[in-house]
Amino acid sequence: MQKRLFIALDMPTAPRAELARLCTGLPGARWTPENQMHLTLCFLGETEGSAFLDLREALADIRAQAFSLGLRGLGFFPPRGTPRVLWAGIEANPALLHLQARVLACVRRLGLPLEQRKFLPHITLARLSEASLPKLQGYLSTYALFSVPAFPMQSFCLYSSLLGRAGATHLVEAEYELGPACSATDPDRNKKSGLRTNTKTAESAGGDERN
């Protein structure tokens, strides 16, 4: 049985609330529900069951330190042509890049296919449908000074995504603590794990995640 997989950082409650405050005032925007906001490290898509089990175990071997993450600025994908995705930016962070590189290396060792896209860390705020460029520019001007002070990131997650008519349902398959050594956490025994329902199905857009 296949699973639609991605690996991501789950946003803590406080910065998630700050992001949710941005989700208004732009006609043609389909806003990301607050409980679905995350930063994708790697999107794998449909993955066979045996490969999923191998990946779930292999990710536990990643060694990476916990770090702080700050948010700054808004933008959209693609940078040219019709805007399709509105995003919040991430402050430059070597530790984040280090973790993402470790995740990619782990996936490659297992021989799993990867998208050939440059890693552009961001958090998707909305999918844009018929949003006029002048109104988008006005929105970006309104929130030009947006920022969230650095907050701690202490784990990353392996998610599966189930697509349905009502949208995508995200399930935390495993959570991995950051520190001297990462360890897989049984989602049944972790309060941060469980089903998270998205009212809109994510689509591929520019450098954006597809989950």
Automatic annotation (TrEMBL):
<comment type="function">
    <text>Hydrolyzes RNA 2',3'-cyclic phosphodiester to an RNA 2'-phosphomonoester.</text>
</comment>
<protein>
    <recommendedName>
        <fullName>RNA 2',3'-cyclic phosphodiesterase</fullName>
        <ecNumber>3.1.4.58</ecNumber>
    </recommendedName>
</protein>
<dbReference type="InterPro" id="IPR014051">
    <property type="entry name" value="Phosphoesterase_HXTX"/>
</dbReference>
<dbReference type="GO" id="GO:0008664">
    <property type="term" value="F:RNA 2',3'-cyclic 3'-phosphodiesterase activity"/>
</dbReference>
<dbReference type="GO" id="GO:0004113">
    <property type="term" value="F:2',3'-cyclic-nucleotide 3'-phosphodiesterase activity"/>
</dbReference>
<keyword id="KW-0378">Hydrolase</keyword>
<feature type="domain" description="Phosphoesterase HXTX">
    <location>
        <begin position="94"/>
        <end position="167"/>
    </location>
</feature>
<dbReference type="GO" id="GO:0016874">
    <property type="term" value="F:ligase activity"/>
</dbReference>
<feature type="active site" description="Proton donor">
    <location>
        <position position="38"/>
    </location>
</feature>
<comment type="similarity">
    <text>Belongs to the 2H phosphoesterase superfamily. ThpR family.</text>
</comment>
<dbReference type="Pfam" id="PF02834">
    <property type="entry name" value="LigT_PEase"/>
</dbReference>
<dbReference type="InterPro" id="IPR009097">
    <property type="entry name" value="Cyclic_Pdiesterase"/>
</dbReference>
<feature type="region of interest" description="Disordered">
    <location>
        <begin position="182"/>
        <end position="211"/>
    </location>
</feature>
<feature type="active site" description="Proton acceptor">
    <location>
        <position position="122"/>
    </location>
</feature>
<feature type="short sequence motif" description="HXTX 2">
    <location>
        <begin position="122"/>
        <end position="125"/>
    </location>
</feature>
<dbReference type="InterPro" id="IPR004175">
    <property type="entry name" value="RNA_CPDase"/>
</dbReference>
<keyword id="KW-0436">Ligase</keyword>
<feature type="domain" description="Phosphoesterase HXTX">
    <location>
        <begin position="10"/>
        <end position="87"/>
    </location>
</feature>
<feature type="short sequence motif" description="HXTX 1">
    <location>
        <begin position="38"/>
        <end position="41"/>
    </location>
</feature>
